[in-house]
Amino acid sequence: APNAAKIHHQLIKHGYIKEYWTMTLSKTSIIDLTKSEQSLLKSFHKKTRQYINLAKRNGINIIQSDNINLAYKLYQQSAIRNNFKPLSFKDFHLRFQVFYTSKMALLLLAQTKNSQSVATLLVLLNSQNKQAAASLAGTSEKGGQLRASYLLYWEAIKLCKKLGYKKFDFDGIA
After folding, report:
1. Non-local CB neighbours of 40 within 8 Å, separated by 6+ positions
2. Do residues 86 and 93 lie in contact, with contact meaning Cβ atoms separated by under 8 Å?
3. C-alpha angle with apex 55: 77 to 42, nearest 5 degrees?
4. How far apart, in whole angstroms, are the C-alpha atoms of residue 50 and residue 41?
5. Alpha-carbon distance 123 to 165, whole Å?
């Protein structure tokens, strides 16, 4: 990959080392973006489709952003609520910076009618194999109530499809 050496260099420069032990996720879902939007939506569970529509009715709007501080705040809220150890801001920011500045990532925010951000998703883009992957996500309590993340993922899928990606990996969400 043309940017692989650049990304590797940036990670090493910031103190990362090559690890020979990896944690493989036990489950993930990868969807085929070559299908029509209608076909993709129809393939989702009925409840998922209902939540996407509910988020729309709740006035949720999805935007692209570079506001890493806000994204991290939403990520932290999810970590606290779901009892997992979050990445440090330094690691979160580095992951964003290295991939985003190399044009290999999208940062999306779900916002309410009054522009309050309630969910975020960092999508990593591999232009070599035309695959996109959800990487880091977060939702506020209000975002959960409004089902914002369902619309956020759906809009991420549609955007990646529009950009020519062939697969979307939910990266551990089964």
Report:
1. 31, 33, 157, 161
2. no
3. 115
4. 11
5. 12
